[in-house]
Structure formats: structure tokens, C-alpha cells
Specification:
Oligomer: single chain
CATH topology of the largest domain: Jelly Rolls
CATH architecture of the largest domain: Sandwich
Distance between the termini: 41 Å
CATH superfamily of the largest domain: Jelly Rolls
Mean pLDDT: 86
Largest sheet: 7 strands, antiparallel
CATH class of the largest domain: Mainly Beta
Length: 333
């Protein structure tokens, strides 16, 4: 499928990296076609050839597994890539060979065969891939990662998740084993599409593994009640709220879904999360609105209404109290 990847004797990678696990998306020497095809999988972006006299020899393979997708991409020329903030996904870029200079927010890294880059969706990204760069990329839904971490902590997130940009992925056995596993799963994608529970397992495994093996701003955060196991009804409602925060929700509906009384539901949330279930939902919606504004996903009024805040003045006051700036300030970032 591709040239033989980097595999030093001291840290050889599994043969799965050369297996035909992903279908070919395109093979092109045309700049506009390359930009459009990569943009379909990732997001619209600027792409330009940086090296004089160079021509693209781009190729991309891709497979989607629910809220996770796997790609392999090379350009065959020095290129500048400007996607800006990714918005709704994290992207782990792992060079099998070659080099790339990657800047995301206030972090920068020289990414090569030993150092991957983990791009944060809320921060603007610019990159230069060298002509020899050949990368495996794992795209993970932002919502999936946020849901996973919120459930782990037992409370809504009060800030965007930000991973350290540089990731020595080959030194992390859990991560390399995970990549091998999802590559093998990708080779059976047609069968997997008939088994949604397996796809859901893969999604959760990728998000949980990334959060556990790579540094981020929540890695030392304590759960809502350290050392305590959340009652089943509290955990069930948390998971539901994280998945359905964009929908109309009533407290009575949550109690019925969890199979407990409204009083028990409120008592459980107060004890284990420190807030009522509806305040938990409001905090969660504020976080989603914050993320949308940072990524430029609409006007202040449009974002407020999207997340159920009908009173713009109250929304702005709550937003400033939580994030230390106005919604319009976030939008301008």
C-alpha cells in the first residue's frame, strides 16, 4: 500500500502498518484535488506547495469507525497546511517517516518518526510537512473525548481539553498496541458496520487510552468525589446528559430514565457532583457554547440559542463568571 515504514530494530512496529486495512481515497498530483479530498475527511483548509520546483505526489488512505477515523497521508512535496482551529475533533499525527513542523496554539514541535503531534480543536494550527513525511493519523471526535473525560471526573468540564502537542508515541506500549488493534479492526470494517456495539467499544477505547497515556490539562484533576464509586443512577444520567446536552431535557425525564425518584436523583448529584442535575446540564451547555465560540462556529446569539440559552444577557453574565471573559471576546480569539 505504501513504502515500508520506519522500523528500527530496537523498536519495530507491527506489520499491521503495511496491511491493506484502509481503502485508498485518492492518488493525485493536483493541488486543488488534494486540498478538496483531504478537506472532506478533515476540514477545509489552506494548502500550498512550499518547495520551489516541487510537484505533489499525494496519496491518502482512510477508514471511518464511528466517531474515530484512521488515515494515512503523504504529499510527496514540502507543503504548508493552515487548517486554523479544528473545531470538532482532535487529531493525532504519527509520522512513520519524514518530518513536519507543527504549531498549535502556543505550542510548537518538530514531529518525526519518534514524536507525534496531538492537535487541539480549540487552538489554531499551522504546519509544514516535508516532502518525505508519511503519517498515520487518528481523528477523534471532540464530543467523544469530552464525554469520556466528564464521565471519568463525574462532573462537567470547566475548560477545553488541551493535550501537550508533542507525543513520544513509540515509547507508549498501550498506544502502539491500540493502533495495531484498530488497524486490524479497520481491515474488517464492513463486518464491523453491522455490529455497532463493537464500534462503540473502539470509540471509547481510543478516547480513554488517549486521555490516560498523554499529558493534558485535566490529568491531575480530582473526580467530583475522590475515591468514591458513582451510584449507577448518577453515572447513567451523566452519560445521558453528555450525549444529549443539545436536546430539551426535564428533571422528571432524567429521574424516570434512571429509575429513581426525583428526590433521590437530586440527592445523588448533590452528594457526588456537588450540583443538581439541571445545574450539571447548564454547566455542560456553557462548556459546549465556549468551545463553539472559540472555534468560530456561529455568532454569539446563534451559539447561545443552540445550547438553550434564550436570555442573552443572563447567558453573557454566566459566561463571563465561568470563563473570565465575554462571549464576544472568545469569538474574537
Amino acid at each position: 500500500m505504501f513504502d515500508t515504514p520506519y522500523s528500527p530494530a530496537t523498536n519495530a512496529l507491527p506489520n499491521a502498518f503495511t496491511a491493506p486495512a484502509m481503502s485508498k481515497l485518492f492518488d493525485s498530483s493536483d493541488l486543488e484535488e488534494t486540498r478538496a479530498m483531504v478537506g472532506r475527511v478533515m476540514k477545509p483548509h489552506r494548502l500550498g506547495i512550499a518547495g520551489r520546483g516541487q510537484r505533489l505526489q499525494s496519496r491518502m488512505h482512510h477508514v471511518a469507525l464511528g466517531e474515530v477515523s484512521l488515515s494515512r497521508l503523504r504529499y510527496g512535496a514540502d507543503v504548508d497546511i493552515e487548517p486554523g482551529p479544528l473545531g470538532d475533533f482532535f487529531l493525532v499525527q504519527m509520522p512513520l517517516k519524514g518530518w513536519a513542523h507543527v504549531k498549535c496554539g502556543d505550542q510548537a514541535v518538530e514531529s518525526g518518526p519518534d514524536v507525534a503531534s496531538v492537535l487541539n480543536p480549540s487552538e489554531s494550527t499551522t504546519m509544514r510537512w516535508r516532502a518525505d513525511s508519511d503519517q498515520i493519523m487518528v481523528r477523534v471526535s471532540r464530543a467523544l473525548v469530552e464525554r469520556t473525560l466528564a464521565v471519568q471526573l463525574g462532573r462537567p468540564l470547566h475548560d477545553c481539553i488541551r493535550f501537550r502537542l508533542g507525543f513520544r508515541w513509540r515509547d507508549c506500549e498501550l498506544w502502539t498496541q491500540l493502533i495495531t488493534y484498530i488497524l486490524k479492526c479497520a481491515s474488517q470494517v464492513q463486518q464491523l458496520q453491522r455490529h455497532q456495539l463493537v464500534v462503540t467499544h473502539i470509540e471509547q477505547l481510543v478516547a480513554a487510552t488517549l486521555l490516560s497515556v498523554h499529558a493534558h490539562n485535566y490529568e491531575h484533576a480530582a473526580p467530583a468525589r475522590s475515591g468514591a464509586v458513582l451510584p449507577r443512577h448518577v453515572r447513567k444520567v451523566q452519560e445521558y446528559l453528555n450525549a444529549h446536552a443539545h436536546e430539551p431535557i426535564r428533571a422528571e425525564q432524567l429521574a424516570s430514565m434512571a429509575g429513581v425518584s426525583l428526590r433521590s436523583l437530586y440527592a445523588g448529584f448533590k452528594e457526588f457532583c456537588g450540583v443538581s442535575p439541571m445545574q450539571y446540564l447548564r454547566d455542560l451547555r456553557l462548556e459546549r457554547a465556549h468551545a463553539d465560540l472559540l472555534s468560530g462556529s456561529g455568532s454569539v446569539g446563534g451559539v447561545a440559542l443552540r445550547w438553550g440559552f434564550g436570555h442573552l444577557g443572563r447567558f453573557s453574565a454566566d459566561y463571563r463568571k465561568r470563563f473570565g471573559e465575554s462571549p464576544s471576546d472568545s469569538l474574537r480569539h
